[in-house]
Structures are given as C-alpha cells and as structure tokens.
Design goal:
The protein has 291 residues and is mostly helical. It has one domain: ABC transporter involved in vitamin B12 uptake, BtuC. The chain has eleven helices and two strands. It has a two-stranded antiparallel sheet. The radius of gyration is 19 Å and the shape is globular.
Length: 291
C-alpha cells in the first residue's frame, strides 16, 4: 500500500470517526451523570435518522439544515424516556432493571421502525452529497467534512455548557455526588432528565449528519450502537474527551484496516483490536490493584 492510499484512508477515517465520536460522547454523557449504560443509544440514533428522513421527504429539508430541529426533538424524546421509564426502573440494589429496560426499549424502537417504514433503505440527500474537496491528490467528501465540523462545534458547545452555565455546573455536581447535589438544592431528577435528553440530542445531531451520506433502515442502530461501546471502551467510560479521540481512532482503524485487509474483513479487525484493548485494560487494572 503506497503512502497516498494510506493518507487517503486516514483522512476518510477521521471523517467517519467524527460520527463514532458523537455517538460515543452521547453514551458517555448519560453514563457520566446517571451511571447507567444505555443499551438503546444506537436505536436513538436510528430514530433521529428517520426524523431527518421525514423532514427531507415531507418538507424537502436538507439534513444539515434539519440538525437543530432534530436535536430539539431528540432532547424531548430523551427527557421523556428518562422521566417516565428510566427513573422508575432505578433501584438501590443494582442497575439490572435499567439494563433490561434499555435493551427492551431498543428492540421496541427498531421493531416500531420496521412496522412503520418496512425494511427498505432510505436516504436523505444533502445539496452537498456529491461534492468533494480536493487537496492535492487527496479527496474529501463534503458531507463527511461538514459532519466532522459539526462534531467539533458540538464538542466545544458541550464543554462551554458544562463549565460556564448554571445547568452545566449542576450536571457536573450531580455527576460527582448526586446526594450532595440534592442536599444543596439541585433538583437531581430534572438534571437526570436533561442529561438523558442531552445524550439523545447529541445522537440526533450525529444521525442528521449521517443521513447526508448514509442510509437508514430499522437495524442501523445495531451497527452504530456496537461502535459506540467500542468507542467508550477505547476512550474510557464516562469521559467525553476520551470518546472524542476514541471515535477518531476507531474511524481511522476501520478505514486503514479496510485498505490493508479488505472491506470484507474490516469488522473482524476492529473486533480483534477491541478484544485486545479489553484484555490489556483488565491486565492493567489487575496490576494496579496488586500494586
């Protein structure tokens, strides 16, 4: 493999990794505050992609133009799910109920999409869908580039919100000590609803960006849900910054692996690396406990 192909693969991987990073950050946002692993995060992405598709098919709206609307709708969906179902399933003796609930919710969402939209692949082309930017011999897809720019803007806005707004400081306080935050007057139930809604909104942004160059079908959440868990494992569960770099790393790993071993084996390579990361992390944890 010559250097030009390698560089092109790395560039493509960074662009694709932007979507992985966003879905990973959305998962970590929820875990960082609520300390629950949300197994229906991929399905929330799928829902946002269908919402984007409906805006496109019914109103002719460009996926990138629809981003704010999709984010607001997904925030409401996430807050509603948390306040009506997640809160009621949390028990003091463990989080098994939440795990089962989110798994079942994911199955419910994917099957509802199958009922409403069948198993057809649906797209929502952007006005930039067929455009590329050339840098020497390198070509960058404009929708993927715009998606990466949206990722960077979203990441900056999340940090500004967490560190410089009242609700952001309350989210951080709840994340550090929920009981202590409640004692100081913070309404933790509202914070939990806002956090879950924020995680769903970030997934919504990722879904709207993804629709400009990918397609949606009821099982698409399985692909990106799995990728999100790989991202948070690579970057650290609960770390938004780790999810950012983990997503970029996963995207580069996929595209470079596809160029080296072929597209048919890229998923195999990704999961082999994922298993190796799990083994190495567990060994490091064992050594740390012994030390």
């Amino acid at each position: 493999m010559n250097s030009e192909i390698l560089i092109q693969a790395i560039i493509n991987g960074i662009m694709v990794g932007g979507i992985y990073a966003m879905i990973g950050m959305s998962l970590n946002m929820i875990f960082g505050v609520m300390k629950i692993v949300n197994f229906c995060q991929g399905e929330l992405l799928m829902v946002s992609m269908y919402i984007t598709y409906l805006f496109y098919s019914e109103l002719g709206m460009d996926p990138f133009v629809a981003i704010p609307l999709v984010a607001v709708i997904m925030f409401g969906v996430g807050a509603l799910i948390q306040s009506t179902m997640i809160t009621r399933s949390i028990k003091e003796d463990g989080d098994q109920n939440v795990l089962f609930l989110t798994c079942c919710l994911g199955i419910f969402l994917s099957n509802t999409a199958l009922l409403l939209f069948k198993s057809d692949y649906r797209t929502a082309e952007s006005s930039f869908s067929n455009q590329v930017v050339s840098l020497g011999n390198m070509n960058i897809s404009v929708p993927k580039l715009l998606g990466f720019v949206v990722l960077c803007i979203t990441t900056v806005l999340i940090f500004l919100m967490l560190y410089y707004t009242r609700i952001g400081k309350q989210i951080r306080a709840t994340s550090q000590n929920a009981i202590g935050a409640q004692v100081t007057g913070i309404r933790t139930k509202v914070i939990y609803a806002c956090t879950y809604g924020l995680g769903a909104a970030i997934a919504g942004i990722a879904g709207a960006c993804l629709m400009s160059y990918y397609y949606v079908y009821p099982a698409v959440g399985n692909i990106y849900g799995t990728r999100s868990f790989i991202v948070v494992t690579m970057g650290g569960l609960g770390s938004v910054v780790g999810a950012f770099f983990g997503g970029i790393g996963l995207g580069v790993m996929e595209t470079v692996g596809s160029a080296v071993v072929g597209a048919a084996f890229k998923d195999t390579l990704v999961f082999i690396v994922f298993i190796l990361i799990l083994v190495v992390k567990e060994n490091l944890n064992i050594r740390r406990r012994k030390g």
